[in-house]
Amino acid sequence: MKYERFEDLPVWKAAIDVALRVYALTKDKFFSQPGDLRSQIRKASLSISNNIAEGFERGTTAELLAFLYIARGSAGEVRSMLLLAERFSEAAHLKSKISEIKSSAESCSRQIRAWADSLQNCDIPGQRHLNDNTRSRYQAQKRSEAFEKQLEQTLRKARPQDYPPAEEQ
After folding, report:
1. pLDDT tens digits, residue range 1-25?
2. Which residues contact 93 (CB under 8 A, 6 or more apart)?
3. pLDDT score of 159
4. What string of DSSP letters covers 122-152?
5. Domain limits of the chain?
6. Rounded to whole angstroms, how far apart are CA atoms 69 and 44?
7. Which 3 state secondary structure label does DSSP give 165?
8. Gap between the Cα atoms of 111 and 104, Å rounded
């Protein structure tokens, strides 16, 4: 599926959910202590979705990748601060909420990593570099690859004796 807007990306939606949950969690009196934990964890949680959005809007694959890794780093920051908070006895009443948010932040991190991995093998340098000519060549190549794959599947069905089982390839 091709996404036209960052607001439609499942990983961006998940990151927004993490930020909302962090903001709700940090309203607790535990986070009212002197120090910067409340502010820092809020900024880091918001940074996940913001970096996904900024990278998506930049227009090049290289820039998107850079911002995805920043977003992934922010997800790690959130988890690190939640792990710290968990160690305080004064935060014992928040243990289940903290655990849920850590799990959500880890899920964001995995999604970002999978997306980044797929982009690293992409042969398109990004929307900014596409013009009508390169776009039509790319689409023609993709149609050709899809046709070849469909043709091979049809041949496998028609003459299975000519093809080894898929797992042997």
Report:
1. 678 899 999 999 999 999 999 999 9
2. none
3. 78
4. -S---GGG--HHHHHHHHHHHHHHHHHHHHH
5. 6-128, 131-168
6. 13
7. coil
8. 11
Type of residue found at 16: I
Unique residue bearing structure tokens 């780093």: 73
Which ranges of 8-162 does DSSP label H, i.e. alpha helix?
10-25, 37-58, 61-86, 95-120, 132-158
Q: What distance, in Å, lies between the first and last C-alpha atoms of the chain?
A: 28
Dump pLDDT digits (tens) for 45-79. 999 999 999 999 997 888 999 999 999 999 999 99
Are the C-beta atoms of residues 16 and 49 closer than 8 Å to each other?
yes
Angle at the Cα of 81 (from 78 to 84), degrees rounded to 5?
150
- CATH class of the region 6-128: mainly alpha
Q: What's the rounded Cα separation, in Å, for the pair 59 and 61?
A: 7
